[in-house]
Amino acid sequence: MASRYGGITGSKRISEDFQNINLAFENVQVDMDARKNETGSVKSDLSEHKISTTAHKAENITYMGQVPGNDVKAAIDNVNGRISEIVAQSGDDITEIVDARGGFPVLGDRLNAFEESLGDTIKKGDYVYNLRDFGAVGDGVDDTQAFINAIASIPERGVLFIPDPEVTYRINQKLIIDKPITICGTTLEVNTQKATFTFSTGVFTGFEVSSPDTSIKNISIKLEDITSSVIAGIYYNSDENLSNSMLENVFIHLNHSFGIGVKGRNVIVSEFKNVRAYQGTHGFYFSIGTSIKFDTCWAMSSIVTGYYVESYQYIDFINCACDSGNSPNHAYHLNFVRGAVFNGCGAEGIGKEMFRFQSSNGIVLNGCFGTGLDNLGTGDATFATITNNSLNITIIGCVDLANPVNKPYVTVSGDYFPVIIGSNFSKYSQNGTIFTDPFLNRANIRLGGLSLYESPFGGTICVATGRGLGFSKQPLGVMDESGGVWLGNFDVDGGIFVGKNASLPAASSSLRGKIIRIEGGTGVADSVYICRKKADNTYEWAKMD
After folding, report:
1. Is there a contact between 280 and 206 (Cβ–Cβ < 8 Å)?
2. C-alpha–C-alpha distance, residues 528 and 515, integer Å
3. What is the spatial distance between Cα 6 and Cα 27, in angstroms, rounded to a whole number?
4. pTM over cut 0.85
5. Mean per-residue pLDDT, 29-34
6. E strands within 101-180?
7. Which of 458, 312, 332 lies closest to 398, judged by CA?
8. CB crowding 487-509: b at 16 or more within 10 Å, else e
9. What value, to the nearest 5°, has the Cα angle with vertex 125 and ends 120 and 128?
10. Distance CA 491, CA 473 (A)
């Protein structure tokens, strides 16, 4: 039978087997003491392991995860191997992730290429086309056909993007813009030797624009032809109105003394901003149109005129400049222009006239200046020449810094005098007669009064606070309809001239106080009468003899 007493077997009854039972209890106690000793040892081992800083060896720790390896050591070895494969050491311990290079020599090249590609993608959109996509190379050989194809493919209101300002696209024929599009580069390279577009010898016009609603921005062009056949760098040319034309941040280099930087015909409601024209006969030449604005433009080294405008109305010139070692005849020449305003414009190195106004009306010069005029040394230079009966010319706060002392600042040919306010012009020529009054033709507004100096007669009208109205050098009175005969006036010495009458009108209350002189004939004395009220309230002419 099975053991009942600690492994002691027998067939006796319990009452008969006490000795064996006691022995069994002794065996159980011995076994329990042994188990207690083992438990204490295990407990001690656990306590020591808990406070120990020494880990088990990695190879003795099992591992299950994504990194290959059956134990922790194997997994760590595999990770280190992978890192060794993707990390390259070079130079001064500069690390670089090789995998991220993507076939480029260095990671930075890949990032730069991505940035350029991303920027190009953003710029292009649905209506933006890249000139490079049409086969343009920009190696200075011939990109003519690529540009022609691009213009033909772009829809109306589309944009042709010109990438990479560091290359030059050579063009071997005139480029025609005949639909409303935008041509847009990236930067403006102001360099007479470098251009975004170079037009070869034999090309006499760079861009010819025959459509309204066009825009050309952020490019530079150069014409290599040096013959008199050159027409223009950019030519706006149409028999119909070219409205909403925009030229901005554009540099035009003509390679010689022929041609025009920007030429326009029938251009209306358009703007030219930060456009620079170098060399040629004219920087800007516009005829027939209305409502155009030149903003921060610059005509450089022109031969004849910086800006020539004829048969126009409503023109703004803002902060424009013209300077030239070639001494052009005029910086700004307006002919048959109605309504033009010059704000803060200047000129330097001009041969004859800074401003020339011919058959024009309603011109305002505000804060304009000239320096280095009469660059040819001929003594012909003036700040402004007003001719062909130009009228309603106003010159405000202008200055000529270098006009020859023996020449007039403003020369007028015709019957209409300009109004000159607060400008430093002490010499004025009217139909060949020079006036040198230092206050000639000025109007100065000062605190406490207004002083007007009228030319060419030199008369003065002063309105002074607390002092009243004063006149000097000129009489004050009434003239006849011709403006040449005084009917009555205060003289310059304070005397009073009474106009003559052939007869006395009927005395009345409306004439009360009026003095009339009846001039006598030969041998007959003059008679002077005053209209007065009598005691009976009637009126009479009383003789003042």
Report:
1. no
2. 7
3. 6
4. no
5. 74
6. 128-130, 159-161, 169-171, 175-177
7. 332
8. ebbeeeeeeeeebeeeeeeebee
9. 80
10. 9
